[in-house]
Amino acid sequence: MLLVGIIYVTVAFVIKKAGTGWLFKLLPTIVVGPVIMVIGLGLAGSAVNNLTGASAGTYNLLYILCGLVALVVTALTAYYGKKTLSLIPFVIGMLAGYGVAAIFTAIGNAADIDALKVIDFGVFSNHLYNRNISS
């Protein structure tokens, strides 16, 4: 992560000093577009499994609702967002979807309804617990 951050800052500095012309020559739109499409198509199966809950062996419509909230918030932020918000619509969308999922999970935990427990917080606590043991 540190190396990626250093590369990012270096490229940003070069773009600030030299402009964007060299970048468009190095990565023309005709190349970048298909690469993005191939990456998106490659991740489509994983997205469907995450959205339907099929990866956990179940099918929960709340997963789809959370995904739709993330989609709508991302689209609205990209279209109507000003300044910084227009630069990070995917982050805002993910936070909105995760927030809705967290609300359903809190209600599910309070009412002891398994169908509403969208987020498995046990995964996080087990990871942190195992990390502390190995330290």
Oligomer: single chain
H/E series, N to C? HHHHHHH
Largest beta-sheet characterization: none
Look at the helices and sheets and give the structural class: mainly alpha
Query: How many beta strands in the DSSP annotation?
Result: 0
- Give the overall pLDDT as a whole number: 84
Straight-line distance between termini: 21 Å
- Percent of residues in helices: over 70%
Based on CA atoms alone, the radius of gyration comes out at 20 Å
Shape: elongated
Strand content: under 5%
Secondary structure tally, helices: 7
Poorly predicted spans: none
Explain what this protein looks like in three dimensions.
The protein has seven helices and no strands. Helix content is 80%, strand content 0%. It is mainly α and 135 residues long. The protein has helices at 2-18, 21-26, 29-52, 61-80, 84-87, 89-111, 121-134.
